[in-house]
Amino acid sequence: MTPDTPRTPVAGPGRPCSMAAALHVVGEKWALLAVRELFFGNHRFDRIVRNTGAPRDRLTARLRALEEAGVVERRRYSERPPRYEYHLTEAGRDLAPVAHALRTWGERWVMPEPPVTFAHEPEGGEPHPYEPVFVCGTCGQPARRGELHTEVHVPGWSVEGPVES
Fold first, then answer.
1. For residue 104, what are the CA distances in angstroms to 10, 110, 111, 128, 136?
2. Would you say 133 and 165 are in contact if contact means Cβ atoms under 8 Å apart?
3. From 45, 68, 126, 144, which residue has the greatest number of CB atoms within 10 Å?
4. pTM (2 decimals)?
5. Structural domains of the chain sorted by starting position, each given as residue range(s) with its CATH number in brackets
6. Residue 116 phi, psi (nearest 5)
């Protein structure tokens, strides 16, 4: 799957919304924790189970759903018995900002101390703590609260909700 691959919109109750569609795919706890483990380089099922604490049957179902959605792919690493590793696809790797945003929020509002830290090691530079920032891809400037404005493109809907006919 690529960003240009035709996709069927996910329909549900309420406002048509990209966030709701994304949550339909990755919004369940075990799905996002499996993605976290893949980012950490843990590709085998047993490690993912151990590190997430997920029940095996639930994790199996989430990994299948992520595979069907094009977020992960299975790669065989053993013929006898047949065994597979899980790897993020391009769509899965594009979840990095989501994972970092959830981590940052959890560190600020939930955890007393960060259980994991990240360092940015730029080529030719000194390593330093990684602090993700939302940046506008058009102008390169940080996107600050109050600078983003919403345009609704779904007929029959406004920012406030359904438009009365």
1. 28, 10, 10, 16, 19
2. no
3. 45
4. 0.84
5. 18-119+127-148 (1.10.10.10)
6. -140, 140
